[in-house]
Each structure stands twice: as structure tokens, then as C-alpha cells.
Specification:
There is one protein chain. The protein is of the alpha/beta class. The chain has one domain (about 15-170): Nucleotidyltransferase, domain 5 (2-Layer Sandwich), CATH 3.30.420. The chain is built from seven helices and five strands; from the N terminus they run H-E-E-E-H-H-H-E-H-E-H-H. The protein has helices at about 10-15, 60-65, 70-75, 80-95, 110-120, 135-140, 155-170; strands spanning about 15-25, 35-40, 45-50, 105, 135. A five-stranded mixed sheet has the order 3-2-1-4-5, sandwiched between helices. Helix 4 (about 80-95) packs across helix 5 (about 110-120).
Length: about 180
């Protein structure tokens, strides 16, 4: 029995921003957001990347071995978190046509969303996504498991996740 695919959110191709974050650990109140990578669903060449100075002074060694960002390096070279999240919010508003509200798209939207939103809230920055997000894993993961290897670099992961989303949506006849 074939089931018909539910339609994608309206104008997702025009307003979707594939987003990924790398963190110092798995818990939002215990570990810092360390980097944000993003690209447009409609144009992979339109991209954003920033590495943040940790605002919590500890990390999970396993997370740091996966993301390879270097906690001590980020303490010296990372962008101030308020400045970094402001840059991301402004970029997100600028790259999406003003007739649309940007849509946060991620392979595991709950995880990335909570770290990025907490950082914005902590520093009084309003992200343009409101409460809207789209999880490509929960929508497409079972029918087309991610066959790409994620390098755990936020921008590279956002681009790979964008390709996964677009390729799978096209296979399903949704784009």
C-alpha cells in the first residue's frame, strides 16, 4: 500500500534555511553553543558561518573530539556570543525575501534549535523564525536515511543536510 506524502510547509524552498550547530556538550544549560552554520534551501551558495566564544567554561571531551573546534582556541578566537547570534539573526532576515518568514530547517531540529534559541534568548536577540521549524529527519529519515557522512562542522553539515532535504523531497515529488 502506498501512502500519499503530506505536503511540505508552504514556500519551504523559498524561505527555508538549513541550519546546524556544534556544541560543547549535549545539554543546553550545561554546555555552550560553539558554532552556527547555515545555507539557504534555495541557494546553497548563500551561506553563513560563525564560531562563538564559549559562555560556559566547561565542555564534554567527547563532544569536542567530534566537533574538533578546540575549546581553548575558541576562548581566544571565538566571536562574542551576543555578536555572533545577532549576526546570524540579521543574516537570516536579509537572505529571505521579506514576503516570507524564514523557516529553520535542520536534520535534528530539536537539538540545534534549542541551543541556538537559548543563545538568542540569553542575549536578548530575536531570531526571525518565531516558533517555526522543520525537522528533515522526522519527515524523511525513515524513508531515506542520511547516507552522507556528517563531518560535524556546522557549515558543512548544514550544506549536506540541505542536499539531503532537497534530494529526498524531489524523490518524493514534493519539490
Amino acid at each position: 500500500m502506498t501512502t500519499k506524502q503530506k505536503p511540505l510547509p508552504q514556500n519551504i524552498f523559498e524561505r527555508g534555511i538549513s541550519t546546524d550547530g556544534e556544541m560543547a556538550g549535549p545539554e543546553i544549560l550545561t554546555y555552550s553553543l560553539l558554532s552556527i552554520g547555515a545555507c539557504l534551501i534555495s541557494d546553497v551558495q548563500e551561506k553563513f558561518y560563525v564560531e562563538l566564544k564559549p559562555d560556559i567554561d566547561h565542555y564534554c571531551p567527547n563532544a569536542m573530539s567530534v566537533n574538533k573546534l578546540g575549546f581553548e582556541r575558541l576562548k581566544d578566537e571565538g566571536v562574542d556570543p551576543k555578536q555572533a547570534i545577532t549576526m546570524f539573526a540579521e543574516w537570516s532576515r536579509e537572505v529571505i525575501d521579506s514576503q516570507y518568514d524564514p523557516l529553520f530547517v535542520a536534520y535534528n531540529v530539536g537539538f540545534d534549535w534549542m541551543f541556538i534559541q537559548l543563545c538568542a534568548s540569553k542575549y536578548g536577540v530575536r531570531l526571525p523564525f518565531g516558533h517555526k521549524g522543520f525537522c528533515s529527519w522526522s519527515r524523511f529519515g525513515k524513508m531515506n536515511p542520511l547516507i552522507y557522512v556528517l563531518p560535524h562542522h556546522a557549515l558543512d553539515d548544514a550544506i549536506i543536510q540541505r542536499h539531503f532535504f532537497v534530494d529526498t523531497a524531489k524523490e518524493c515529488g514534493l519539490l
